[in-house]
Design brief:
Layout: H1 2-21, E1 32-33, E2 36-37, E3 39-41, H2 44-47, E4 50-54, E5 59-63, E6 72-78, E7 81-82, E8 97-99, E9 104-108, E10 113-119, E11 126-131
Parallel strand pairs: 3-5, 4-11
Antiparallel strand pairs: 1-2, 5-9, 6-7, 6-8, 6-10, 10-11
Length: 132
């Protein structure tokens, strides 16, 4: 039993570190207004494999929390790779924009549609933004 515990404890610790490395914070998915949000926190809980709705022509913020954030490079894309999307805001064109802990970047989606957003530093951080 002690051998199993000695083996599992380091694995659990590494798993916890891996999850927090991308800035995991509870909640904070964005302020809502009529079913839309005005920001997203660059955290595993809020950014990884989620879909959110944003109002067209409304400033939208990508927020990297100062207490848990880190380096992110955000672009239109999927699974850590930028993918050209002619309808996406220019800030999201390859190579995207860099954001660090405590920073906020505002982007305005001028065209309705569905946009896939990725972090090239953290391939598990993907977000679908539906602009209405």
């Amino acid at each position: 039993m002690k051998k199993v515990a000695a083996f599992l404890l380091p694995l659990l610790l590494l798993s916890a570190i891996a999850v927090t490395a991308c800035g995991k914070t509870p909640g904070g998915g964005g302020n809502t207004s009529g079913g839309t949000v005005d920001h997203v926190n660059l955290t595993v809980d809020d950014f990884a494999q989620h879909s959110i709705t944003v109002a067209v022509n409304t400033p939208f913020k990508f927020v990297d929390p100062s207490d848990t954030g880190g380096l992110h490079i955000i672009c239109a894309g999927d699974n850590g790779k930028c993918i050209a999307d002619p309808n996406a805001p220019q800030e999201l064109a390859d190579p995207g924009f860099q954001i660090n802990a405590g920073d906020t970047k505002t982007v305005t989606f001028a065209k309705a549609g569905t946009y896939k957003i990725a972090c090239t530093v953290h391939p598990n951080m993907n977000l679908t933004i539906v602009v209405q």
